[in-house]
Write a structure and sequence with these properties.
The protein is built from 14 helices and 18 strands. It is α+β, with helices and mostly antiparallel strands. The protein has two domains: about 290 residues, FAD/NAD(P)-binding domain; about 140 residues, no CATH class. Strands 1, 2, 4, 5, 6, 7 and 17 form a seven-stranded mixed beta sheet that branches. The chain has a five-stranded antiparallel beta sheet with strand order 10-11-12-9-13, with no helix packed on it. Strand 1, helix 1 and strand 2 form a beta-alpha-beta unit. The longest helix is centred in the middle third of the chain and has 25 residues. The chain binds flavin-adenine dinucleotide (FAD). Flavin-adenine dinucleotide binds next to helix 1, strand 5 and helix 11.
């Protein structure tokens, strides 16, 4: 059957943010590239179970330098020019802590990604589940898929696992690590609302800045005082300047006392841009289900059922307690659970909390990040993205490098990982959007080079000069960060 008889240079499994970046980068680097995705659409957590509240975030570090380029920044620029992204929120307190948000409209992001796939010549196979790998000894030779055509094998020189949860690496027998069911971060069912009276809400927020949480903007390296943030909030004139509105502490406590809030998550939402300057409220922390392993379908089922119950409680709370939500209505409930934590491969290098805290640079860098290490959600009423166990957060003083070796699983050949499941310790988990697109793009280029040169991804470790050169040609930032003025000279 056509399509199944071909031998591809590169097969990308999973079409989330890491997978689309990997496929585009691989095709642009000249490889015959197939992307296989379980669902009928691309984007993964960016749209199917999202969008992430802060998409994109932290593409500028605490010195106000952009540390991410490549495919991610290309999408931001293209969406911005088409009116589907907001200017980066870079107020003083945000810039000082690298908590700059550069919002994109997730629906138009997806449309753009399809366009970029076509431009690059990526071959797509959607509605197709990767169920196994073809292996000879420890070398991966392709994948086994199930879809409307039944069960088929597809051969490829290099396979990239971009499934988020290391499904392919596990099938290939790669070593992976995952925290236990008791420790794993809670997962979420996200939803989006419209019809909010933003003026009414803004009036409340301005009068009560102390009712909100700002933990993630407190970078000890550059120092931000809470009073500085309060002062900013008191003077906000457009709700878009806030980006996220998290806390509602007094209202939440009142609701808890009245039995109108559930014990698993805090209260808050993010703003997402829509056409014509319209904005909506996006909730990604109002449901929190602990003890769910993404590798167990029974757990996932329990999470889906429980999240829907919590969603109803949360929405009743917003309508009853939060000024501005009186006539608001839900426009979208995600169809899939948002999975916060899952298995990571054990790679030739394991990125650690110390690497992040010491802003470490590596000779085999494939990109940078300025996200702190050690942020975990737990299922409790005062836990939102921002107060992920603040005491455990280790902030870098600038941008640390992501080494290529984190993408190469130990022992298994011709397999690379990208996205959430690359090799890190738990605190340094590279799960944020921009990180997944950085590792995705690098895996795509590395795979294309290996396929062309007939070498394994591990052999490429010995000399990464071509990998780095092609990534630089593709606009990635590996060595020099870009000062804000220069970074935004195109605006
Ligand atoms: C509640 C929540 C809030 C978050 N908020 C933010 C935020 O505000 N900002 C931010 O930057 N990040 C945020 N994140 C993190 C970020 O959104 C995700 O970690 C990131 O999108 C993961 O990208 P990925 O490509 O690794 O995986 P995914 O996006 O999960 O993509 C994996 C893809 O693989 C496909 N797939 C899986 N198995 C198979 C298979 N066997 N065969 C074929 N296809 C398969 C899936 O359908 C999916 O499309 C959040 C995460 C959660 C859970």
């Amino acid at each position: 059957m056509s399509g199944y008889d071909e031998i591809y240079d590169v097969i990308v499994c999973g079409g989330g943010t890491s997978g689309v970046a990997a496929a585009i980068a691989s095709a642009r680097a000249g490889a015959k590239t197939l992307l296989v995705e379980r669902l009928g659409t691309l984007g993964g957590q960016m749209n199917v179970s999202g969008p992430p509240g802060f998409a994109y975030a932290r593409i500028f570090n605490c010195h106000n330098e952009r540390d991410v380029g490549g495919i991610l920044y290309e999408t931001y620029k293209r969406l911005y020019k088409a009116g589907h992204a907001l200017p980066s929120l870079r107020y003083r307190y945000r810039a000082k802590s690298a908590a700059v948000f550069s919002y994109v409209d997730p629906e138009w992001w997806t449309i753009l990604i399809y366009k970029m796939m076509e431009e690059a010549g990526v071959i797509l196979l959607l509605d197709t589940l990767v169920v196994d790998v073809i292996k000879e000894g420890n070398t991966v030779k392709g994948i086994v898929v199930e879809n409307a055509n039944g069960r088929n094998e597809i051969k490829g020189k290099i396979v990239i696992d971009c499934t988020g949860e290391a499904y392919v690496a596990i099938r290939a027998g790669a070593e992976t690590v995952c925290v236990s069911r008791d420790e794993i971060q809670p997962h979420t069912l996200a939803f989006t609302a419209d019809g909010v009276n933003w003026d009414r809400l803004l009036d409340y927020v301005r009068r009560h800045p102390e009712q909100f949480t700002y933990g993630h903007v407190m970078n000890p390296h550059t120092g931000t005082s809470l009073e500085e943030v309060y002062e900013f909030v008191r003077n906000v004139t457009d709700i878009r300047e806030l980006g996220e509105i998290l806390g509602f502490i007094e209202l939440r406590d009142m609701a808890l006392a009245n039995g109108d809030w559930h014990p698993n998550s805090g209260v808050g939402f993010f703003i997402i841009p829509r056409e014509g300057g319209h904005i909506q409220a996006h909730f990604q922390h109002s449901t929190h289900v602990p003890r769910i392993l993404p590798t167990d379908a029974w757990d996932l089922t329990r999470g889906n059922i429980e999240c829907r119950k919590q969603l109803e409680i949360a929405w009743r709370f917003f309508k009853k307690y939060v000024p501005g939500f009186e006539n608001a209505y839900i426009v979208r409930m995600c169809t899939e659970l948002r999975l916060r934590e899952g298995p990571r491969i054990v790679g030739d290098y394991v990125l650690t909390r110390e690497d992040v805290a010491n802003t470490r640079q590596f000779p085999d860098t494939i990109g940078k990040s300025s996200f702190p290490a050690g942020g975990y959600h737990v299922a409790s009423t005062d836990t939102l993205a921002v107060n992920e166990d603040e005491e455990n957060l280790s902030f870098p003083n600038g941008s640390y490098d992501i080494p290529y070796r984190c993408l190469v699983p130990v022992k298994i050949d011709n397999l690379l990982a990208a996205g959430k499941c690359v090799s890190t310790d738990r605190p340094a988990y590279l799960r944020y959007l921009q990180q997944t697109m950085v590792t995705g793009q690098a895996a795509g280029v590395a795979a294309a080079i290996c396929a062309r040169r007939g070498i394994t991804p591990r052999e490429l470790v010995k000399d990464v000069s071509e990998l780095q050169a092609v990534l630089l040609e593709q606009g990635a930032i590996l060595f020099e960060t870009v000062k804000q003025e220069e970074a935004e000279s195109w605006l």
